[in-house]
Amino acid sequence: MRTATDWQETPPVVLVIAGNDPSGGAGVVADIQALTALGAHPAVVVTCLTVQDTRNAYSVNPVDAGLVEAQACAVLEDLPVAAIKIGLLGTVEIGRAVARLIGEVGDMPVVLDPVLIAAGGAALAEEALVDVLLEDLLPRATVLTPNAQEIRRLAPGNADHAERAGALIARGCRYVLVKGGDEEEAEVHNLLFDAGGEVKHFTWMRLPHRYHGSGCTLASGIAALLAHGNNPRAAVAGAQRFTFEALRHAFRPGGGQHIPRRLPSIGSDHG
Amino acid sequence: MRTATDWQETPPVVLVIAGNDPSGGAGVVADIQALTALGAHPAVVVTCLTVQDTRNAYSVNPVDAGLVEAQACAVLEDLPVAAIKIGLLGTVEIGRAVARLIGEVGDMPVVLDPVLIAAGGAALAEEALVDVLLEDLLPRATVLTPNAQEIRRLAPGNADHAERAGALIARGCRYVLVKGGDEEEAEVHNLLFDAGGEVKHFTWMRLPHRYHGSGCTLASGIAALLAHGNNPRAAVAGAQRFTFEALRHAFRPGGGQHIPRRLPSIGSDHG
User: Fold this and answer.
1) What is the value of pTM for the model shown?
2) Inter-chain CB proximity A22 and B10 less than 8 Å
3) The CATH number of the domain where B103 resides is what?
4) A98 vs B267 pLDDT, higher one
5) Range of B258's domain?
6) Which ipTM value was assigned to this complex?
7) Backbone dihedral region of A267: left (phi > 0), alpha (psi from -120 to 50 degrees) or beta?
8) Structural domains in chain B (count)
9) Over 70: is that where the pLDDT of B127 sits?
10) A33 part of contact set with chain B, CB < 8 Å
Protein backbone atom coordinates (compact mmCIF):
# COMPACT_ATOMS: atom_id res chain seq x y z
CA MET A 1 0.00 0.00 0.00
CA ARG A 2 1.56 3.29 -1.09
CA THR A 3 1.24 6.31 1.23
CA ALA A 4 3.51 9.28 1.84
CA THR A 5 5.61 8.35 4.85
CA ASP A 6 8.45 10.74 4.16
CA TRP A 7 8.37 14.24 5.63
CA GLN A 8 10.25 15.45 2.55
CA GLU A 9 7.65 14.21 0.05
CA THR A 10 4.94 16.53 -1.28
CA PRO A 11 1.58 14.97 -0.40
CA PRO A 12 -0.91 14.44 -3.24
CA VAL A 13 -3.84 16.85 -3.09
CA VAL A 14 -7.37 15.55 -2.52
CA LEU A 15 -10.24 17.93 -3.24
CA VAL A 16 -12.94 17.43 -0.58
CA ILE A 17 -16.45 18.67 -1.38
CA ALA A 18 -18.52 18.21 1.77
CA GLY A 19 -20.32 19.76 4.72
CA ASN A 20 -19.05 20.92 8.09
CA ASP A 21 -20.10 19.19 11.31
CA PRO A 22 -19.24 21.50 14.22
CA SER A 23 -18.84 18.56 16.62
CA GLY A 24 -15.78 17.49 14.63
CA GLY A 25 -17.06 13.94 14.47
CA ALA A 26 -18.09 13.81 10.83
CA GLY A 27 -17.91 16.11 7.79
CA VAL A 28 -14.81 17.99 6.75
CA VAL A 29 -13.04 17.53 10.12
CA ALA A 30 -13.24 13.77 9.59
CA ASP A 31 -12.08 14.18 5.99
CA ILE A 32 -9.15 16.42 6.91
CA GLN A 33 -7.96 14.09 9.66
CA ALA A 34 -8.27 10.94 7.54
CA LEU A 35 -6.56 12.49 4.50
CA THR A 36 -3.75 13.94 6.58
CA ALA A 37 -3.24 10.67 8.45
CA LEU A 38 -2.82 8.88 5.14
CA GLY A 39 -0.34 11.42 3.77
CA ALA A 40 -2.62 13.43 1.45
CA HIS A 41 -3.20 17.18 1.49
CA PRO A 42 -6.87 18.19 1.96
CA ALA A 43 -8.21 21.07 -0.16
CA VAL A 44 -11.67 21.67 1.27
CA VAL A 45 -14.75 23.09 -0.43
CA VAL A 46 -17.61 23.53 2.03
CA THR A 47 -21.10 22.80 0.65
CA CYS A 48 -23.23 23.07 3.80
CA LEU A 49 -22.92 24.21 7.37
CA THR A 50 -24.78 21.80 9.59
CA VAL A 51 -25.87 22.42 13.16
CA GLN A 52 -25.01 19.11 14.71
CA ASP A 53 -23.63 17.47 17.83
CA THR A 54 -22.54 13.94 18.63
CA ARG A 55 -26.20 12.86 18.91
CA ASN A 56 -27.82 14.03 15.68
CA ALA A 57 -27.97 16.71 12.96
CA TYR A 58 -30.45 19.53 13.65
CA SER A 59 -30.18 21.67 10.52
CA VAL A 60 -28.40 21.64 7.17
CA ASN A 61 -27.63 25.09 5.79
CA PRO A 62 -26.50 24.92 2.18
CA VAL A 63 -24.01 27.38 0.73
CA ASP A 64 -24.88 29.19 -2.50
CA ALA A 65 -24.01 26.88 -5.42
CA GLY A 66 -22.00 29.63 -7.11
CA LEU A 67 -19.80 29.94 -4.04
CA VAL A 68 -19.26 26.17 -3.97
CA GLU A 69 -18.12 26.44 -7.59
CA ALA A 70 -15.85 29.44 -6.90
CA GLN A 71 -14.12 27.64 -4.00
CA ALA A 72 -13.57 24.53 -6.13
CA CYS A 73 -12.27 26.52 -9.12
CA ALA A 74 -9.73 28.32 -6.89
CA VAL A 75 -8.41 24.91 -5.83
CA LEU A 76 -8.44 23.31 -9.28
CA GLU A 77 -6.63 26.25 -10.92
CA ASP A 78 -3.85 26.39 -8.31
CA LEU A 79 -3.29 22.88 -6.99
CA PRO A 80 -2.48 19.54 -8.71
CA VAL A 81 -5.58 17.68 -7.51
CA ALA A 82 -5.03 13.89 -7.63
CA ALA A 83 -8.44 12.69 -6.40
CA ILE A 84 -11.84 14.05 -5.40
CA LYS A 85 -13.99 13.04 -2.43
CA ILE A 86 -17.64 14.10 -2.50
CA GLY A 87 -19.77 13.97 0.65
CA LEU A 88 -22.84 15.93 1.76
CA LEU A 89 -24.15 18.10 -1.09
CA GLY A 90 -27.25 19.70 0.38
CA THR A 91 -29.13 20.97 -2.68
CA VAL A 92 -29.87 20.05 -6.27
CA GLU A 93 -28.06 23.21 -7.42
CA ILE A 94 -24.89 22.24 -5.53
CA GLY A 95 -25.15 18.69 -6.86
CA ARG A 96 -25.38 19.98 -10.43
CA ALA A 97 -22.51 22.45 -9.93
CA VAL A 98 -20.30 19.64 -8.59
CA ALA A 99 -21.31 17.40 -11.52
CA ARG A 100 -20.25 20.15 -13.97
CA LEU A 101 -16.91 20.56 -12.16
CA ILE A 102 -16.02 16.88 -12.16
CA GLY A 103 -17.13 16.65 -15.77
CA GLU A 104 -14.34 19.11 -16.63
CA VAL A 105 -11.39 17.73 -14.67
CA GLY A 106 -10.62 14.81 -16.93
CA ASP A 107 -9.78 11.31 -15.79
CA MET A 108 -9.33 11.52 -12.02
CA PRO A 109 -10.47 9.16 -9.24
CA VAL A 110 -13.72 10.28 -7.62
CA VAL A 111 -15.03 8.80 -4.37
CA LEU A 112 -18.74 9.51 -3.98
CA ASP A 113 -20.18 9.06 -0.50
CA PRO A 114 -23.96 9.36 -1.02
CA VAL A 115 -24.77 11.02 2.30
CA LEU A 116 -28.53 10.69 2.66
CA ILE A 117 -29.06 10.13 6.40
CA ALA A 118 -27.17 11.46 9.46
CA ALA A 119 -25.76 8.94 11.95
CA GLY A 120 -28.51 10.03 14.35
CA GLY A 121 -31.24 9.42 11.75
CA ALA A 122 -31.92 12.90 10.30
CA ALA A 123 -32.63 13.01 6.56
CA LEU A 124 -29.92 14.92 4.68
CA ALA A 125 -31.10 14.75 1.07
CA GLU A 126 -34.41 15.35 -0.66
CA GLU A 127 -35.65 13.18 -3.52
CA ALA A 128 -34.55 15.58 -6.29
CA LEU A 129 -30.99 15.48 -4.99
CA VAL A 130 -31.07 11.68 -5.11
CA ASP A 131 -31.92 12.01 -8.81
CA VAL A 132 -28.92 14.32 -9.36
CA LEU A 133 -26.68 11.81 -7.57
CA LEU A 134 -27.94 9.00 -9.76
CA GLU A 135 -28.01 10.80 -13.09
CA ASP A 136 -25.20 13.37 -12.94
CA LEU A 137 -22.67 12.18 -10.37
CA LEU A 138 -22.75 8.37 -10.45
CA PRO A 139 -21.44 8.16 -14.03
CA ARG A 140 -18.19 9.85 -12.93
CA ALA A 141 -17.67 7.95 -9.65
CA THR A 142 -14.76 5.57 -9.28
CA VAL A 143 -16.05 4.24 -5.95
CA LEU A 144 -19.54 4.77 -4.49
CA THR A 145 -19.78 4.12 -0.72
CA PRO A 146 -23.43 3.75 0.37
CA ASN A 147 -24.47 2.10 3.60
CA ALA A 148 -27.19 -0.56 3.37
CA GLN A 149 -29.97 1.95 3.99
CA GLU A 150 -28.60 4.33 1.35
CA ILE A 151 -28.22 1.71 -1.37
CA ARG A 152 -31.81 0.56 -0.75
CA ARG A 153 -32.92 4.13 -1.41
CA LEU A 154 -30.60 4.63 -4.41
CA ALA A 155 -31.60 1.35 -6.08
CA PRO A 156 -35.08 0.39 -4.87
CA GLY A 157 -36.99 -2.60 -6.18
CA ASN A 158 -34.04 -4.98 -6.23
CA ALA A 159 -33.80 -8.26 -4.33
CA ASP A 160 -30.33 -7.92 -2.77
CA HIS A 161 -27.17 -5.82 -2.63
CA ALA A 162 -25.73 -7.55 -5.69
CA GLU A 163 -28.72 -6.52 -7.79
CA ARG A 164 -28.71 -3.00 -6.32
CA ALA A 165 -24.98 -2.55 -6.93
CA GLY A 166 -25.43 -3.90 -10.46
CA ALA A 167 -28.13 -1.32 -11.15
CA LEU A 168 -25.84 1.51 -9.94
CA ILE A 169 -22.82 0.23 -11.84
CA ALA A 170 -24.99 0.13 -14.97
CA ARG A 171 -25.28 3.90 -14.58
CA GLY A 172 -21.52 4.28 -14.94
CA CYS A 173 -19.75 4.10 -11.59
CA ARG A 174 -16.91 1.59 -11.45
CA TYR A 175 -17.15 0.16 -7.93
CA VAL A 176 -19.82 0.08 -5.22
CA LEU A 177 -18.81 -0.61 -1.62
CA VAL A 178 -21.90 -1.46 0.44
CA LYS A 179 -21.22 -0.80 4.13
CA GLY A 180 -22.95 -3.01 6.70
CA GLY A 181 -21.93 -1.17 9.88
CA ASP A 182 -25.46 0.00 10.68
CA GLU A 183 -27.11 -3.38 10.03
CA GLU A 184 -28.26 -5.71 12.81
CA GLU A 185 -25.72 -8.44 12.28
CA ALA A 186 -23.19 -10.02 14.65
CA GLU A 187 -20.33 -8.99 12.42
CA VAL A 188 -19.97 -6.11 9.95
CA HIS A 189 -20.10 -7.17 6.32
CA ASN A 190 -18.84 -4.72 3.69
CA LEU A 191 -19.32 -5.85 0.09
CA LEU A 192 -17.36 -4.54 -2.89
CA PHE A 193 -18.90 -4.88 -6.35
CA ASP A 194 -17.74 -4.04 -9.86
CA ALA A 195 -19.32 -4.66 -13.27
CA GLY A 196 -18.57 -8.38 -12.94
CA GLY A 197 -20.41 -8.75 -9.60
CA GLU A 198 -19.04 -9.21 -6.09
CA VAL A 199 -15.30 -8.60 -6.00
CA LYS A 200 -14.64 -9.02 -2.32
CA HIS A 201 -16.53 -9.68 0.93
CA PHE A 202 -14.93 -7.95 3.94
CA THR A 203 -15.91 -9.17 7.41
CA TRP A 204 -15.06 -6.97 10.41
CA MET A 205 -15.52 -7.53 14.12
CA ARG A 206 -18.49 -5.46 15.32
CA LEU A 207 -17.24 -2.79 17.73
CA PRO A 208 -19.27 -1.95 20.85
CA HIS A 209 -20.30 1.67 20.26
CA ARG A 210 -22.05 3.88 17.76
CA TYR A 211 -19.68 6.14 15.84
CA HIS A 212 -20.08 9.63 14.39
CA GLY A 213 -18.16 10.07 11.13
CA SER A 214 -17.16 6.53 10.24
CA GLY A 215 -18.48 6.92 6.67
CA CYS A 216 -16.57 10.17 6.05
CA THR A 217 -13.42 8.57 7.45
CA LEU A 218 -13.71 5.58 5.13
CA ALA A 219 -14.53 7.57 1.97
CA SER A 220 -11.67 10.01 2.58
CA GLY A 221 -9.36 7.11 3.34
CA ILE A 222 -10.20 5.58 -0.04
CA ALA A 223 -9.62 8.95 -1.75
CA ALA A 224 -6.23 9.37 -0.04
CA LEU A 225 -5.08 5.94 -1.13
CA LEU A 226 -6.33 6.48 -4.70
CA ALA A 227 -4.48 9.83 -4.78
CA HIS A 228 -1.28 7.95 -3.92
CA GLY A 229 -1.76 5.85 -7.04
CA ASN A 230 -3.20 2.69 -5.52
CA ASN A 231 -5.81 0.80 -7.52
CA PRO A 232 -9.43 0.92 -6.25
CA ARG A 233 -9.44 -2.58 -4.75
CA ALA A 234 -6.28 -1.90 -2.75
CA ALA A 235 -7.55 1.54 -1.72
CA VAL A 236 -10.87 0.12 -0.50
CA ALA A 237 -9.10 -2.58 1.52
CA GLY A 238 -6.52 -0.20 3.03
CA ALA A 239 -9.07 2.46 3.93
CA GLN A 240 -11.18 -0.11 5.75
CA ARG A 241 -8.18 -1.17 7.84
CA PHE A 242 -7.46 2.49 8.62
CA THR A 243 -11.11 3.14 9.57
CA PHE A 244 -11.31 0.05 11.75
CA GLU A 245 -8.28 1.25 13.73
CA ALA A 246 -9.80 4.74 14.06
CA LEU A 247 -13.05 3.25 15.40
CA ARG A 248 -11.24 0.87 17.70
CA HIS A 249 -9.49 3.86 19.32
CA ALA A 250 -12.57 6.11 19.30
CA PHE A 251 -13.40 8.39 22.23
CA ARG A 252 -16.65 9.84 23.55
CA PRO A 253 -16.25 13.53 24.30
CA GLY A 254 -19.96 14.43 24.52
CA GLY A 255 -23.35 13.01 25.28
CA GLY A 256 -23.81 11.03 22.09
CA GLN A 257 -21.84 8.83 19.73
CA HIS A 258 -18.14 8.03 19.83
CA ILE A 259 -15.79 9.93 17.53
CA PRO A 260 -13.19 7.94 15.55
CA ARG A 261 -9.58 8.76 16.48
CA ARG A 262 -8.18 9.31 13.03
CA LEU A 263 -4.73 10.43 14.08
CA PRO A 264 -2.35 9.86 16.94
CA SER A 265 -0.94 13.11 18.29
CA ILE A 266 2.70 14.00 17.71
CA GLY A 267 3.05 14.10 21.47
CA SER A 268 5.79 15.63 23.50
CA ASP A 269 8.40 15.77 20.72
CA HIS A 270 7.02 19.15 19.67
CA GLY A 271 5.34 20.12 22.92
CA MET B 1 4.81 20.17 28.21
CA ARG B 2 1.57 18.20 28.62
CA THR B 3 -0.11 16.80 25.51
CA ALA B 4 -2.22 13.71 24.93
CA THR B 5 0.17 11.05 23.69
CA ASP B 6 -1.87 8.08 24.70
CA TRP B 7 -4.35 6.57 22.26
CA GLN B 8 -6.57 5.68 25.20
CA GLU B 9 -6.88 9.22 26.57
CA THR B 10 -9.86 11.41 25.62
CA PRO B 11 -8.46 14.54 23.96
CA PRO B 12 -9.56 17.91 25.38
CA VAL B 13 -11.98 19.75 23.09
CA VAL B 14 -10.97 23.08 21.50
CA LEU B 15 -13.74 25.16 19.97
CA VAL B 16 -12.43 26.77 16.77
CA ILE B 17 -14.30 29.81 15.42
CA ALA B 18 -12.71 30.67 12.08
CA GLY B 19 -12.98 30.77 8.30
CA ASN B 20 -12.36 28.11 5.68
CA ASP B 21 -9.51 28.41 3.18
CA PRO B 22 -10.18 25.93 0.34
CA SER B 23 -6.45 25.59 -0.40
CA GLY B 24 -6.04 23.90 2.97
CA GLY B 25 -3.09 26.14 3.79
CA ALA B 26 -4.73 28.37 6.37
CA GLY B 27 -8.09 28.61 8.14
CA VAL B 28 -9.86 25.67 9.70
CA VAL B 29 -7.76 23.04 7.88
CA ALA B 30 -4.68 24.50 9.56
CA ASP B 31 -6.51 24.63 12.89
CA ILE B 32 -7.76 21.04 12.65
CA GLN B 33 -4.33 19.71 11.74
CA ALA B 34 -2.51 21.65 14.47
CA LEU B 35 -5.03 20.76 17.17
CA THR B 36 -5.07 17.10 16.19
CA ALA B 37 -1.28 16.95 16.05
CA LEU B 38 -1.11 18.27 19.59
CA GLY B 39 -3.68 15.82 20.92
CA ALA B 40 -6.76 18.06 21.11
CA HIS B 41 -10.16 17.46 19.49
CA PRO B 42 -11.27 20.26 17.10
CA ALA B 43 -14.92 21.36 17.23
CA VAL B 44 -15.22 23.74 14.31
CA VAL B 45 -17.60 26.66 13.82
CA VAL B 46 -17.22 28.21 10.38
CA THR B 47 -17.59 32.02 10.22
CA CYS B 48 -16.67 32.70 6.59
CA LEU B 49 -16.06 30.82 3.38
CA THR B 50 -13.13 32.40 1.58
CA VAL B 51 -12.24 31.92 -2.06
CA GLN B 52 -8.50 31.57 -1.78
CA ASP B 53 -5.51 29.74 -3.18
CA THR B 54 -1.86 29.51 -2.07
CA ARG B 55 -1.21 32.96 -3.55
CA ASN B 56 -3.87 35.20 -2.04
CA ALA B 57 -7.48 35.53 -0.81
CA TYR B 58 -9.96 36.67 -3.46
CA SER B 59 -13.23 36.90 -1.54
CA VAL B 60 -14.49 36.53 2.02
CA ASN B 61 -18.08 35.32 2.27
CA PRO B 62 -19.41 35.64 5.80
CA VAL B 63 -21.94 33.22 7.23
CA ASP B 64 -25.09 34.61 8.86
CA ALA B 65 -24.25 35.55 12.46
CA GLY B 66 -27.22 33.57 13.78
CA LEU B 67 -25.86 30.44 12.11
CA VAL B 68 -22.44 31.03 13.65
CA GLU B 69 -24.14 31.22 17.03
CA ALA B 70 -26.25 28.08 16.40
CA GLN B 71 -23.15 26.06 15.44
CA ALA B 72 -21.28 27.22 18.54
CA CYS B 73 -24.22 26.53 20.87
CA ALA B 74 -24.52 22.98 19.53
CA VAL B 75 -20.88 22.41 20.45
CA LEU B 76 -21.00 24.13 23.84
CA GLU B 77 -24.12 22.25 24.95
CA ASP B 78 -22.77 18.82 24.00
CA LEU B 79 -18.99 18.89 24.41
CA PRO B 80 -16.72 19.75 27.36
CA VAL B 81 -14.88 22.62 25.65
CA ALA B 82 -11.51 23.28 27.33
CA ALA B 83 -10.28 26.25 25.23
CA ILE B 84 -11.44 28.50 22.41
CA LYS B 85 -9.48 29.66 19.37
CA ILE B 86 -10.88 32.61 17.43
CA GLY B 87 -9.60 33.44 13.94
CA LEU B 88 -11.21 35.18 10.98
CA LEU B 89 -14.55 36.70 11.95
CA GLY B 90 -15.67 38.49 8.80
CA THR B 91 -18.37 40.86 10.02
CA VAL B 92 -19.25 43.05 12.96
CA GLU B 93 -22.35 40.93 13.59
CA ILE B 94 -20.29 37.74 13.81
CA GLY B 95 -17.77 39.48 16.04
CA ARG B 96 -20.52 40.58 18.41
CA ALA B 97 -22.16 37.12 18.40
CA VAL B 98 -18.81 35.52 19.29
CA ALA B 99 -18.24 38.09 22.03
CA ARG B 100 -21.64 37.21 23.53
CA LEU B 101 -20.82 33.50 23.39
CA ILE B 102 -17.45 33.78 25.09
CA GLY B 103 -18.98 36.11 27.67
CA GLU B 104 -21.22 33.22 28.72
CA VAL B 105 -18.78 30.31 28.91
CA GLY B 106 -17.12 31.31 32.17
CA ASP B 107 -13.40 31.17 32.83
CA MET B 108 -11.87 29.37 29.87
CA PRO B 109 -8.65 30.07 27.92
CA VAL B 110 -9.31 32.06 24.73
CA VAL B 111 -6.69 32.51 22.00
CA LEU B 112 -7.59 35.45 19.78
CA ASP B 113 -5.79 35.64 16.43
CA PRO B 114 -6.74 39.08 15.08
CA VAL B 115 -6.81 38.14 11.39
CA LEU B 116 -6.79 41.46 9.54
CA ILE B 117 -4.70 40.75 6.44
CA ALA B 118 -4.28 37.61 4.31
CA ALA B 119 -0.78 36.21 3.76
CA GLY B 120 -0.98 37.47 0.17
CA GLY B 121 -1.91 40.99 1.29
CA ALA B 122 -5.71 41.08 0.95
CA ALA B 123 -7.57 43.02 3.68
CA LEU B 124 -9.79 40.73 5.76
CA ALA B 125 -11.39 43.12 8.28
CA GLU B 126 -13.08 46.48 8.01
CA GLU B 127 -12.58 49.24 10.57
CA ALA B 128 -15.81 48.55 12.47
CA LEU B 129 -14.73 44.94 13.03
CA VAL B 130 -11.43 46.17 14.45
CA ASP B 131 -13.47 48.14 16.99
CA VAL B 132 -15.42 45.00 17.96
CA LEU B 133 -12.14 43.12 18.38
CA LEU B 134 -10.76 45.84 20.63
CA GLU B 135 -13.86 46.54 22.67
CA ASP B 136 -15.75 43.25 22.89
CA LEU B 137 -13.24 40.44 22.32
CA LEU B 138 -9.91 41.63 23.72
CA PRO B 139 -11.17 41.81 27.31
CA ARG B 140 -11.80 38.02 27.25
CA ALA B 141 -8.59 36.99 25.46
CA THR B 142 -5.97 34.97 27.31
CA VAL B 143 -3.47 35.32 24.47
CA LEU B 144 -3.69 37.74 21.51
CA THR B 145 -1.47 36.80 18.55
CA PRO B 146 -1.07 39.77 16.15
CA ASN B 147 1.72 40.03 13.62
CA ALA B 148 3.65 43.31 13.56
CA GLN B 149 1.39 44.84 10.91
CA GLU B 150 -1.74 43.85 12.85
CA ILE B 151 -0.58 45.25 16.17
CA ARG B 152 0.31 48.56 14.48
CA ARG B 153 -3.27 48.73 13.26
CA LEU B 154 -4.80 47.59 16.57
CA ALA B 155 -2.75 50.03 18.67
CA PRO B 156 -1.74 52.96 16.46
CA GLY B 157 0.10 56.02 17.77
CA ASN B 158 2.52 54.09 19.96
CA ALA B 159 6.31 54.16 19.68
CA ASP B 160 7.11 50.44 19.81
CA HIS B 161 5.66 46.95 20.35
CA ALA B 162 6.00 47.27 24.13
CA GLU B 163 3.79 50.37 24.16
CA ARG B 164 1.35 48.80 21.70
CA ALA B 165 1.10 45.58 23.71
CA GLY B 166 0.65 47.62 26.88
CA ALA B 167 -2.24 49.51 25.33
CA LEU B 168 -3.95 46.22 24.35
CA ILE B 169 -3.32 44.57 27.72
CA ALA B 170 -4.87 47.64 29.37
CA ARG B 171 -8.07 46.66 27.55
CA GLY B 172 -8.11 43.35 29.40
CA CYS B 173 -6.27 40.64 27.49
CA ARG B 174 -3.66 38.82 29.55
CA TYR B 175 -0.86 38.19 27.06
CA VAL B 176 0.12 39.61 23.68
CA LEU B 177 2.43 37.64 21.40
CA VAL B 178 3.76 39.92 18.63
CA LYS B 179 4.91 37.81 15.67
CA GLY B 180 7.81 39.10 13.56
CA GLY B 181 7.71 36.53 10.76
CA ASP B 182 6.63 39.02 8.10
CA GLU B 183 9.13 41.72 9.11
CA GLU B 184 12.31 42.44 7.12
CA GLU B 185 14.80 41.16 9.66
CA ALA B 186 17.55 38.56 9.40
CA GLU B 187 15.97 36.49 12.16
CA VAL B 188 12.36 36.19 13.32
CA HIS B 189 11.67 37.93 16.63
CA ASN B 190 8.45 37.00 18.48
CA LEU B 191 7.81 39.03 21.63
CA LEU B 192 5.54 37.97 24.48
CA PHE B 193 4.14 40.67 26.76
CA ASP B 194 1.95 40.64 29.86
CA ALA B 195 0.81 43.42 32.19
CA GLY B 196 4.33 43.74 33.56
CA GLY B 197 5.94 44.29 30.13
CA GLU B 198 8.08 41.97 28.01
CA VAL B 199 7.99 38.44 29.40
CA LYS B 200 10.08 36.67 26.81
CA HIS B 201 11.90 37.39 23.54
CA PHE B 202 11.89 34.41 21.16
CA THR B 203 14.40 34.40 18.30
CA TRP B 204 13.89 31.94 15.43
CA MET B 205 15.99 31.19 12.36
CA ARG B 206 14.34 32.80 9.34
CA LEU B 207 13.20 30.05 6.96
CA PRO B 208 13.61 30.50 3.20
CA HIS B 209 10.01 30.56 1.94
CA ARG B 210 6.73 32.35 2.42
CA TYR B 211 4.14 30.26 4.26
CA HIS B 212 0.34 30.10 4.03
CA GLY B 213 -1.27 29.43 7.39
CA SER B 214 1.60 29.88 9.86
CA GLY B 215 -0.49 32.21 12.06
CA CYS B 216 -3.44 29.80 12.27
CA THR B 217 -1.04 26.96 13.08
CA LEU B 218 0.55 28.92 15.92
CA ALA B 219 -2.71 30.18 17.45
CA SER B 220 -4.28 26.71 17.36
CA GLY B 221 -1.10 25.24 18.78
CA ILE B 222 -1.35 27.63 21.74
CA ALA B 223 -5.03 26.74 22.20
CA ALA B 224 -4.24 23.00 22.16
CA LEU B 225 -1.56 23.36 24.80
CA LEU B 226 -3.77 25.59 26.98
CA ALA B 227 -6.55 22.99 26.68
CA HIS B 228 -4.13 20.40 28.06
CA GLY B 229 -3.73 22.56 31.15
CA ASN B 230 -0.39 24.20 30.39
CA ASN B 231 0.09 27.80 31.53
CA PRO B 232 0.12 30.52 28.83
CA ARG B 233 3.90 31.02 28.84
CA ALA B 234 4.55 27.32 28.36
CA ALA B 235 1.80 27.06 25.72
CA VAL B 236 3.22 29.99 23.75
CA ALA B 237 6.71 28.51 23.83
CA GLY B 238 5.58 24.99 22.90
CA ALA B 239 3.33 26.15 20.08
CA GLN B 240 6.18 28.13 18.55
CA ARG B 241 8.39 25.04 18.55
CA PHE B 242 5.58 23.04 16.93
CA THR B 243 4.98 25.75 14.29
CA PHE B 244 8.69 26.07 13.50
CA GLU B 245 8.86 22.33 12.81
CA ALA B 246 5.74 22.52 10.62
CA LEU B 247 7.28 25.38 8.59
CA ARG B 248 10.64 23.64 8.35
CA HIS B 249 8.89 20.64 6.75
CA ALA B 250 6.53 22.73 4.59
CA PHE B 251 5.72 21.74 1.00
CA ARG B 252 4.65 23.76 -2.04
CA PRO B 253 1.73 22.05 -3.79
CA GLY B 254 0.63 24.98 -5.94
CA GLY B 255 1.83 28.16 -7.58
CA GLY B 256 2.11 30.26 -4.44
CA GLN B 257 3.24 30.00 -0.87
CA HIS B 258 4.42 26.92 0.99
CA ILE B 259 1.98 25.07 3.27
CA PRO B 260 3.16 24.06 6.75
CA ARG B 261 3.28 20.30 7.31
CA ARG B 262 1.39 20.11 10.57
CA LEU B 263 1.27 16.35 10.81
CA PRO B 264 3.33 13.41 9.71
CA SER B 265 1.22 10.72 8.09
CA ILE B 266 0.62 7.43 9.88
CA GLY B 267 2.25 5.74 6.91
CA SER B 268 2.12 2.14 5.91
CA ASP B 269 1.02 0.77 9.30
CA HIS B 270 -2.59 1.35 8.32
CA GLY B 271 -2.17 1.37 4.55
Assistant:
1) 0.95
2) no
3) 3.40.1190.20
4) A98
5) 4-267
6) 0.94
7) left
8) 1
9) yes
10) yes
